[in-house]
Design brief:
The complex is a heterotrimer. Chain A contains 12 helices and 7 strands. Chain A is mainly alpha-helical. The chains are: A mainly alpha, B mainly alpha, C alpha/beta.
Chain lengths: 403, 368, 340
């Protein structure tokens, strides 16, 4: 009944629409058809063009053998793997450099941002130079500059220079810094390290859980637990237990001189270094500025109140200023994280095999330009939207907690 | 004498207050000074004393000297090789544009920069300035491309260096502005269809890296066009870049629209102004004024982003530096070229940032 | 509707746009434009390389000139568009260039799925490796574990993986699209080996090695693939395909008959050999079959010489001998179907 009435009302409303509303509807319809028509026109042209040239369309090529090799990969990959797997390798490489870059940029950024407010004139001047200089240089220029530096004969030796009687001595006897990359010792591959990793993950989980419990407890009883120490001990002890349980491997794999390069241990390629340095340093300058102005936005009365309570400066910063500044900091920080992730696509310029670089190769080998570009865009778009969604959620959460 | 002493004591005071006020600060200051003493002379030697920049007395030159770059001198040097920049200077600035025609990109760059500087003063903004831009942009293209008025024809593939960076950033930003305004209003609009389409456009473009949009522009636009029509590489990049900047600028303008007090809308309505009158004469001017500082930041970002076109094999300022370094005799000194480019980019971006701060301060006082 | 759209876009893009061929009438489009648009490399010595004044030279460039001479009567009516490996096929597919003469290898996938048609082979090449002498590598078989510099999106990239797989060896690729950046990385010592077509290796070694250091690099004897390089046209225009194909064959045929740029006029007027008379249009018919002027190949030879002359002008400076590219009658495999 109610439905019938409302639908009747709606009908009535359509009949009684005034001139302005009619105009709006007509305008919208026209706009829609214009956009849809334009899109169809472009799509139709593409279809015609592709068909005329006998170019196959569709995504079936993804399951074919790729036939090309990739320099660095976190999952097993060979030229006999499929194109889809190659793209996955690229996506993982992008994620690795983005996550690592975000972590490092945040650490450096917070450090520099807090230092920028130091009462020490030298410190605040130097941080201001850091911020203003680095964020005014194009990130692509920074990446290429880093790549040129880490592959330049003027600054670094090659692996071969360590050979023979008069060869160079590696740093600390085991770390080789060369134009072919950094070669250093690493834990021998062993299942035991998996135990340690599981222990670490469990430790982090438990400490978050304890923090949550203690907060409830504090709300009820007003008593505080030494959350930090309990959490830290879990994070430190559990990996050791996991490591011991799985056989306590102690083997360390040292890089050894091979025919062409050092084998064994861990290798960090110049491409990775260049991309990571470029992205991290560029973003850290922005983050430092965000942190600085976030802290400045906290009223000085808050700091004075903390002092009058006799709190230590560190506690005032950590417990009073930063939590309040966080509310201001989170939204611009989110967009910096997204920017860093998107900027990781510049890896293609120095040959780090990220998503764009591999999609580009796929595009060239198969000629499937529309499909390859679509995959790239969808992957980035969904990453951006997911990150934005998560950060919005976090932002809402902390805004709520504060009130 | 007494004055002198008081300066001394204030400066001693200053040092104590700013550098050694706590023991922690004293330690930090000492560490920084030690680091500076260690690194600064090394850097100074690399950049200046050990560096190579070969200059020769030359009576024919207008300043009495001329550069005589010598890559052999650089091989022996311990410092930077600025000869690279001297040797490749024309290539870096003008790209592969024919040597005897270099005055054309030079005139174009000077005109464009003057026009930009002229437009910086907000009080000059208006219909006239808009018309000037609309007339100036095609004129500059004709000057660069030639084929008219006895100018030799130079295809866009040979353009490079400064003009490309300037065209992409200035023209891209100017062209994106009207699109951005429309997008911003579209997104604010009550009309669901318009709003949805605008949101989709803005969010998709902002959600993907510029490089994918440039790939799209460079590889897909040709497929989107009907048979027989072709747009050259430069214009394709310009289209991609314009759409990209439009989405970002639109979001900034939207922020300004939201900040315009509601009373302004109501006042306009109560005066019986039409939607367009209200928008053009009341809302837009206020919104634009509010967003000038943040928009400058967007422009700085876009200016830096123009470097990305080297990934689609075009030679902007950064690209011509790379082109210069492809000469095997000079390849080891690519770093000097990049540092030179870094300084240029820094100066331009920093100037823009300083201008934005100045505007912000000015607007603040106006508001008071 | 559609035509309105077309005009609107065309008007908007008037400063920049070039009207290119519709698929079926490339030749008409070239003639009405008065210019052949030729896609070339961004700079590969011996094949297509611009000098500081923007003048292009090389074997691939000479083929463009010959085509322009045959179609338009003048070898100067060519516009060269430098294309990266990434852009080359889309540029051709979209009609941005009429013909792609850019050291491009003929393969089945490219000939079919990419919507392209290969015309004829202008250079029989094969992929090789270049290594620093200091590594003391004598054969590609010793490259197990090496790091190899390579341009992405090329057949070389695939051949490289195939070769190492077939010989159960491993390698790490360093893949950089920009040729300048890739060369810089290799000559800085980032990679142990550099791979591309043998001609490209010779050109890179000669033109891009650090000054005076060319001899520090050697090209390994193994040729790991077949790389027949030749011009490419769009799929779906058989007439233009025929023209490009037969201009190349005509140049090869001219070398076989001893017709050179210096004697072509004389041969055209005085030769008694019916084969020569047919080729040079003294006995008409061939030009008409192609839809061209009867002096098509005479114009081409006058402009750039026969195939042998083109070769001698461009390739020997790279330090390469003619090898497979000799005429079939001299022990090579360069062979033209009969012009009749």
């Amino acid at each position: 009944m109610a439905n019938a009435i409302s639908s009747f009302k709606r009908t009535l409303r359509i009949i009684t629409m005034n001139g302005k509303e009619v105009k709006a509807v007509i305008f919208q319809a026209a706009f829609f058809f214009l956009v849809a028509g334009g899109a169809y026109f472009l799509y139709h042209n593409m279809q015609v063009n592709l068909e005329r040239q006998n170019i196959q369309t569709g995504f079936h090529y993804l399951s074919l053998e790729s036939g090309f090799a990739i320099g660095e990969s976190w999952i097993s990959y060979s030229p006999s793997s499929s194109y889809a797997r190659a793209i996955l390798v690229g996506f993982i490489n992008t994620s690795v450099v983005a996550v690592l870059g975000i972590t490092l940029a945040t650490l450096i950024g917070v450090f520099v941002g807090v230092a920028a407010l130091s009462s020490n004139w030298l410190v605040s001047k130097l941080t201001s130079v850091y911020i203003n200089f680095l964020r005014n240089l194009p990130v692509l220029l920074q990446i290429i500059l880093w790549y040129t530096i880490v592959t330049s004969p003027r600054f670094l030796p090659t692996v071969r220079d360590f050979n023979g009687e008069n060869g160079l001595e590696p740093f600390l006897g085991t770390i080789y810094m060369t134009r072919q990359g950094i070669f250093m010792p690493f834990f021998e591959a062993d299942i035991g390290w998996l135990g340690a990793a599981i222990g670490l993950a469990t430790g982090i989980f438990i400490s978050i859980w304890i923090r949550y419990l203690s907060r409830i407890r504090m709300d009820k009883t007003g008593q505080q637990l030494p959350v930090f120490w309990i959490g830290t001990s879990f994070i430190l002890v559990l990996p050791c237990i996991g490591w011991l349980l799985m056989g306590a491997p102690v083997g360390i794999d040292y890089p050894e001189m091979g025919r062409f390069r050092l084998s064994g241990g861990a290798t960090i390629t110049p491409e990775f270094i260049a991309v990571l340095f470029g992205l991290t340093i560029y973003a850290s300058a922005f983050i430092a500025d965000i942190v600085r102005s976030g802290i400045l936005s906290v009223p000085t009365g808050q700091v004075e109140a903390g002092r009058s309570l006799g709190l230590q400066e560190g506690v005032i910063m950590g417990r009073i200023v930063l939590p309040q500044a966080l509310r201001i900091i989170i939204p611009p920080l989110t967009s910096q994280y997204l920017n860093l992730t998107k900027n990781s696509s510049l890896a293609v310029a120095v040959g780090y095999p990220d998503l764009v670089s591999i999609s580009n190769t796929t595009l060239n080998q198969t000629g499937q330009a529309p499909e390859a570009i679509m995959i790239m865009m969808i992957v980035y778009l969904s990453t951006s939207l997911t990150t934005a969604f998560f950060m919005n959620w976090y932002d809402k959460k902390i805004q709520f907690v504060e009130r | 004498m007494s004055i002198h002493l008081s300066i001394l004591s204030t400066s001693r005071n200053w040092i104590r207050r700013k550098l050694f006020n706590t023991w922690a600060n004293s330690v930090i200051t000492a560490l920084i000074i030690m680091a500076l003493i260690y690194f600064f002379p090394k850097a100074y030697m690399w950049v200046v004393t050990d560096a190579i920049l070969t200059i020769q007395v030359d009576s024919e030159s207008w300043w009495g000297y001329s550069f005589v770059p010598d890559s052999n001198a650089c091989i022996k040097a311990n410092g930077a090789c600025w000869d690279f920049v001297a040797e490749k200077f024309r290539l870096i600035i003008f790209g592969l544009y024919p040597q005897d025609q270099h005055w054309r990109p030079l005139v174009m760059m000077i005109t464009l920069i003057s026009l930009i500087v002229y437009s910086l003063d907000t009080s000059r903004w208006g219909f006239r300035l808009g018309v000037t831009w609309v007339v100036a942009i095609p004129m500059m293209f004709f000057l660069m491309q030639g084929g008219v008025l006895g100018l030799t024809f130079v295809q866009t593939d040979s353009w490079g260096g400064g003009p490309i960076t300037l065209i992409l950033s200035a023209v891209g930003i100017v062209l994106s502005f009207p699109i951005a305004v429309m997008l911003a209003f579209g997104r604010q609009s009550d009309m669901l269809v318009v709003k949805t389409i605008c949101i989709f456009f803005i969010e998709i473009i902002r959600g993907v890296p510029l490089i994918t949009i440039l790939f799209m522009a460079s590889l897909m636009i040709p497929l989107f066009l009907p048979e027989g029509i072709n747009i050259n590489k430069l214009l394709r990049a310009l289209i991609g870049f314009t759409l990209f900047s439009a989405a970002y600028v639109a979001e900034v303008i939207r922020g300004g629209l939201q900040a315009v007090p509601k009373g302004q809308y109501e006042a306009a309505d109560s005066l019986g102004l039409s939607y367009w009158q209200k928008t053009i004469f009341i809302i837009l001017p206020q919104a634009l004024k509010l967003v000038i500082p943040p928009i400058m930041n967007t422009f700085i970002g876009l200016f830096k982003d123009t470097t990305l076109i080297i990934i689609i094999s075009m030679y902007d300022f950064l690209g011509t530096v790379r082109l210069g370094a492809s000469d095997p005799a000079w390849r080891p000194y690519y770093i000097e070229g990049l540092l030179f480019a870094a300084i240029v980019y820094f100066v331009v971006c920093y100037a823009m940032a300083a201008y934005s701060l100045h505007l912000e301060a000015k607007l603040d006082t106006e508001r008071r | 509707m559609k035509s309105k759209w077309t005009t609107a876009i065309a008007a908007a893009a008037i400063v920049f746009s070039s009207y290119s061929a519709s698929a079926a009438k490339t030749v008409e489009a070239i003639k009405s434009r008065g210019e052949l648009i030729c896609g070339v490399s961004t700079g590969l010595g011996g094949f297509s390389l611009p000098d500081s004044r923007g003048k292009w030279t090389g074997l691939d460039v000479d083929i463009c000139k010959a085509l322009a001479a045959a179609i338009l009567g003048s070898s100067y009516k060519v516009k060269y568009i430098p294309l990266s490996t990434q852009q080359r096929f889309t540029a051709l597919q979209s009609g941005e260039v009429d013909v792609l003469s850019r050291n491009t290898s003929w393969s089945l996938t490219r000939d079919t799925a990419l919507g392209l048609n290969f015309t004829a082979v202008t250079y029989y090449d094969g992929q090789g490796f270049m290594v620093p002498k200091a590594l003391e590598v004598k054969s590609a078989k010793e490259l197990d574990g090496a790091t190899v510099c390579i341009q992405p999106g090329t057949t070389s990239e695939l051949n490289l993986a195939d070769y190492f797989r077939a010989n159960s060896m491993t390698f790490t690729p360093v893949v950089i699209e920009s040729l300048q950046e890739l060369n810089a990385a290799f000559f800085a010592g980032r990679c142990d080996a550099y791979t591309t077509d043998a001609s490209g290796l010779a050109s890179t070694r000669l033109n891009d090695a650090p000054k005076g250091k060319s001899d520090d690099y050697i090209i390994l004897p193994e040729i790991i693939s077949k790389e027949p390089l030749g011009p490419v046209v769009r799929h779906g225009d058989d007439q233009f395909l025929d023209i490009v194909k037969w201009v190349i064959f005509g140049l090869v045929e001219a070398e076989e008959f001893g017709i050179t740029s210096s004697n072509v006029r004389e041969m055209a007027s005085s030769s008694k050999n019916p084969n020569i008379k047919r080729l040079l249009g003294t006995n008409p018919g061939m030009g008409r079959n192609l839809g061209l002027d009867e002096a098509w190949i005479v114009n081409a030879i006058l402009a750039v010489g026969n195939y042998g002359e083109i070769w001698e002008r461009n390739i020997p400076p790279l330090g390469l001998s003619r090898g497979l590219n000799k005429l079939w009658s001299n022990g090579g495999i360069m062979y033209s179907p009969p012009v009749r």
